[in-house]
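Pinned message: reference record for Structural maintenance of chromosomes protein 3
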Amino acid sequence: MAWQMQPQMQQMPQMQAMQQPMQQMHNQQMQHQQNQQHQQHQQMQQQQQRQQMQQQQQRPQMQHQQHQQHQQHQQMQHQQMQQPQMQHQQMQASKGMGQAGKGSKGKDGKGMRPPAHQVRPQSLALSPSASAPSAQGIMVSGCANETVSNIIKGSFSVAGSNHGKHIYKKDTSDPNVTVLIYYWDDRDGSSFSGWWIGPKVGGDQVWSHADNRSSPTPPPAGWHVPWDGPVDPSLTLTYTPATASAAPPPALPAPAPQPGKAAGKAAGKGQVVGVRPVMKPHDLQMERKKPETIGPGGPQNNRIEELRRKSAEAEEAQRKRQEEMKRNREEDLQRRKEMTAATNVRKVLAKVRAARADSYDALRAQLEESIATNLEAMGSIASKVGQEAEEVLQAAQTRIDDLNEQRAQEDRERAEQEKQRKHEAENSVKFVEEAKSDAQTQLKKVQEAEELCKKLEDEADPTKLLERTEAAEKEVASVLGEANEVKAAIHEKQRRMLTDGNSKIRRELSEVMGKLGAALRSLNAVLHGLKSRREKVARKAAAVEKMNEKKSVFAQFDLDKDGKLSKKEVEAYMKATINFDLPPAILDPIVQKLDPITYAKFRSLHQRLYIAKSELLAREALGI
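Predicted structure (tokens):
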């Protein structure tokens, strides 16, 4: 075991360096989970506080509303008791008017109905705006949607308040349509907050919505039509001053119908643009501000029952939410306890993952003790943590065994490498001698190839020069290829040598390999020069050959061998070459112009004959 323990001690820093990032990653994950749980717990506490505050705000309002309804009911009973006396007084007043009243019977013998102002019951619910005649009014104009524009445009006056801000009601509108501008705060969420235009405060039917929550009054612009659509820049609100003599604004409308019923009736002939999400019971505080028809068995009693029912439903929903929050807090507390206990065990697991062979047993005992201490607190995740512990222990044992085997393998490899190093060191001397000999041989061949290229300058005949240049180019290319192969082979053998011997070999071969490299670069330049020279010689030989061909043609038609062509010789050349007879009027000027027609003018003669032929054929085609 001694030979195994010593390598283990040497590689422990590497093992720790490998395990530290894993442990840090695990700790970061645990910290992230704890932060998430803490944030969820804070959110639940904040939600519970908001709900408690809302409930506390609703209770005084409900009590005040019930008190007002009780007073209204008493006033209604008092008025009903006074109605017979008022009717008796009215009948006495009509008798005192003389016989004209008796003669006003119709065919059916009944009397005329008294004036409406004498028998009409007075409303007990006054508009809140009546007490504030100096408040500003609003003029709504514009709107790209023609249907919505016809409903909402017009003048508005203050008709109450909701959530601490004024409610505005349209002064003149269709009797079947009520148009309100009201504010709703963020108690039901930010999506419900802002200024709304609709037939009912907090209703689910709306025409427009403005996101400006900070404005104390309806904003002049920024209204969405429909409420969840884009902003309509043409829809604007203008504030107008109101006078004390102005008539009180109409009372608030009746509640809008519930979703799924005839909701279109409240909006007027089905012209509501958007459907607003259903509000929560917070809008109960507005019910006390709406005018009611007072009478026994009338809508007032039904409304009281409806308010009581909604209040009971709200309290029941609040109770359920509180129970749910309590259950969530208990579950969250239990989860936190379990996670804390599991974290304690996992900290020891992180140490076991990085255990060395000499510390493995002690860390395993520490892990077992930690599991026993935190077993009950881990609760439902105890089995999962236990499985993790088994996997970590097994992985640690396997890792230690693998490290021992790896160290043994490394020892064997080092012995083999040492043996190989000695063998290569013995062969390095032989390699250096062979490499020097091969390099010297290639240097000699390169010098011979360069001498061969220098002898090409003595040749004057283009044809022979081309042949010798091509042969020299092949020879130089062969020598250059062989020398490059030898150089590459020497470098490859040198690369395979061991590091210690390689530097020594490089020093011994540096001089001869440097000379060989310089010679190869020089020979490569010679090869490029040969290629350029061969191409140049080839072009020159081709030009000479073409010129000889033209001279041969000239000599063929120069029958008298005087070095120039006569008119008859030109006519013979014309018939043989262009296969055409030019009239003397055209041919004679050409001959006279070029006379004497030597070989130097032979090309010009050929061109003029072809041009004259083309012009003559063109004139004949045109009928000239």
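Pinned by admin. Summary line: The radius of gyration is 57 Å.
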